Automatic annotation (TrEMBL):
Membership in a protein family: Belongs to the 4-hydroxybenzoyl-CoA thioesterase family.
Record-listed E.C. numbers: 3.1.2.-
GO MF annotation list: hydrolase activity
Domain of life: Bacteria
InterPro entries: 4-hydroxybenzoyl-CoA_TE, HotDog_dom_sf, YbgC/YbaW
Descriptive protein name: Acyl-CoA thioesterase YneP
Keywords for the protein's UniProt record, in alphabetical order: Hydrolase
């Protein structure tokens, strides 16, 4: 299984009153990890959007284990948890500076037409991307 890794320095603005990363920021970091994975595989969300194709989140799950704080570096690990040619489930594990798991999560995505939001068959639209996902999930 291919795992993409992306480091993110925790900024002060990403923390809450308790001095820990605000919970919703992990979703943003998951998106950063997901786009890094796609880029690492040789593709681009931006190019897909130019084709009039969007990839909305249809489900997300996050388990908070340890807090991250300002000044630490988060390491976002992202992989393809499940893929069937239509829906993709990305897996995430975010580590703190000590290599301890801070967050685990998944997000599920499908592709839709920008104008109609009609679901599209990813494997038919992007056969090379489909093949890369099949290989990456092994």
């Amino acid at each position: 299984m291919f795992v993409s890794k992306k480091e993110i320095e925790v900024r002060y603005a990403e923390t809450d009153q308790m001095g820990v990363v605000y919970h919703a920021n992990y979703l943003i970091w998951m998106e950063v990890g997901r786009t890094a994975l796609i880029k690492d595989l040789g593709f681009s969300y931006a190019e897909m959007e130019k084709d009039g194709v969007l990839s909305p989140v249809v489900d997300v799950s996050v388990r908070y284990i340890k807090p991250l704080r300002y000044g630490e570096t988060a390491s976002v690990h992202t992989w393809i948890e499940e893929y069937n040619g239509f829906k993709t489930v990305y897996g995430y594990e975010i580590f703190n500076s000590n290599g301890e798991t801070a967050v685990k999560g998944t997000s599920s995505h499908i592709c839709v037409d920008r104008g109609s939001f009609k679901p599209l068959q990813f494997r038919k639209l992007y056969p090379e991307w489909h093949q890369a996902y099949e290989e990456a999930k092994k």
